[in-house]
Amino acid sequence: MISIEHISQALHETLSASLNATLVLLIEMAIAGVLVIGLFAVLGLVLVFMERKVSAYMQIRLGPNRVGYKGFAQTAADTLKLLIKEGLTPDGADKFLFNLAPLLVIVVAMLIMAPIAFTKGFQLWDINIGVLYVSAVSSIGVIGILMAGWASNNKYSLLGAMRSGAQIVSYELSAGLSLITIVIFTGSLSINDIIASQQNGWWIFKGHIPALISFVIFIIAVTAETNRAPFDLAEAESELTAGFHTEYSGMKFALFFLAEYVNIFIVCAIGATLFLGGWMPFRVGNLEAVNRVFDFIPGIVWFFGKVFALIFLIMWFRWTFPRLRIDQLLNLEWKYLLPIAMFNLLLTTIFAIMGWHF
Amino acid sequence: MFLVEYIKTVYNACASLLKGMRMTGYYFFNHKEIITQQYPDVKQELPERFRGEVVMIHDEKNEHRCTGCTACELACPNATIKIVTKMELQPDGKKKKALDTFVYHLELCTMCNLCIEACPTGAIKMAQTFEHSVFDRSQLTKKLNAPGSKLMEGVE
Question: What is the distance between the alpha carbons of residues B52 and B128, in angstroms, rounded to a whole number?
């Protein structure tokens, strides 16, 4: 059976046969970069369209349905519009930081892509501290947002950026603690080891109550970390016009918009990898026949299926819940999520020591 | 006890959030009743009393009921209506005031309906048209009485 692993290996062998090692590495890096940028572009188009359709269906509307077949070309048309718009820089703005911020945000999103395993043997960088790397790099994104808010020379932008900073710094904690739950169960920080440990069942089922609690905390925390409703105080269209990207227009605005959706994809990919087994197929106890059927579905389909299921869940949150006030937001983190996550960590340790998980 | 209260708060919060999600989830998976009106393709029946613009009622003989009394002009709060009258020679040799031009400035009109209420003869009414956009605003100044129209017999 042909698989992505074979294709990448065959490519590596063909290149190695005729070129020296440095050139092979450079060419492979270029290919990986093109693939990541391509994935970003496709994700931007697909996720924006998905969001608009999901929101429309949840609000008994139709959503975009004019451009292309059933509106599928809507996001492409929007992107084209943004491309030909003027990228305005306000008069009092710090020009260097103002133009750097969207790039920083998108570069951070690209960096987190590195340790994510899309399918068996298809991973940019098999780093042995993958989970730590992800949680460390993802917090650099807040610098881009603060930079954008500060450099815009606009009070709404600065307010939005400050709120975003407080929010992301707070919710990093519970997101990190919920990731540690799975690390304790697995005993490894490597993404590949974590996926391999879920061969006989996903952690959300194997880990009993602690895994379930940490999954819920993780989903809440990443929703806050990606600045999405109900935690979208950083943008808050109705009070801060658009928060940190008020002054951005044209392609610079599009980069922020793209980064938001790519970040959703990435956090959902991390969630799917840690809690739902990455590209591992679903396992039903001892039913060999069913398991065999699931094995035939390629890993990449499992991976993207899980990721999009989580993305749908996060979109469901956005179109259901009202926005929190800033004090409610911080209360939720410091009085509820963090204590529960810490208690959950204790529970996890007991479960792991006693070996109560499967 | 504090801990019981705490757990109760968490439980109630989760329950109410799930309740909301059940509602939106129901709408998502049962996509039947749609409130979107696909406007240019499907036009909605407007209510009978919808106020789009002022028009003058003409019958099939091209006769209207406007006597040129200017009650509507006086009732209008923002000078939307301007009535130009003329002296018309009656068959019995007397001169009588009659309507020459009923000038209606749509760009000034707030659709308050006061002119229609003021009209003693029921000569004007509100129409249901609402697509008033034009490229030049002079086109919004309208002459309401049709060319060559006359006052209906017996309307004083």
Answer: 5
User: pTM to 2 decimals?
Assistant: 0.80
- Helices A74-83 and A21-58: crossing angle in degrees, nearest 10, is 120
| Amino acid making up residue A143 | I
Put simply, the answer to whether B21 touches A61 (Cβ < 8 Å) is no
ipTM for the predicted complex? 0.72
Of A192, A174, A179, A175, give the one whose Cα is nearest residue A339.
A174
pLDDT for position A357 = 67
- Provide the pLDDT for residue A231: 82
3-state helix, strand, coil in chain A (%, to 5): 70, 0, 25
The bridge status of strand B53-56 relative to strand B63-64 is: unpaired
Task: In whole angstroms, give the CA distance from residue A321 to residue A259.
Answer: 23
Residues A21 and A318: their CA atoms lie apart, in Å, by 48
- Cα atoms found within 13 Å of the Cα of residue B114, Cβ hemisphere only: 15
Cα A340 from Cα A214, distance rounded (Å): 9
Q: Over the stretch A251-303, which tens digit does the pLDDT of each residue have?
A: 888 888 888 888 889 888 888 888 888 787 777 767 777 777 777 777 788 88
Distance of CA A256 to the CA centre of its chain: 14
Whether residue A317 and residue B21 make contact (CB cut-off 8 A), yes or no, is: yes
Tokens of A99: 């133009």
Nearest CA in chain B to A63: B36
Is A321 an interface residue toward B (CB < 8 Å)?
yes
- pLDDT tens digits for A191-225? 888 888 887 778 777 777 888 888 888 998 888 88
Q: What is the DSSP string of A263-292?
A: HHHHHHHHHHHHHS-TTPPP--TT-HHHHH
What are the sequence ranges of the domains in chain A? 90-354
* Angstrom distance (rounded) from CA B145 to CA A185: 86
Distance between start and end Cα atoms, chain B: 85
SS3 category, A194: helix
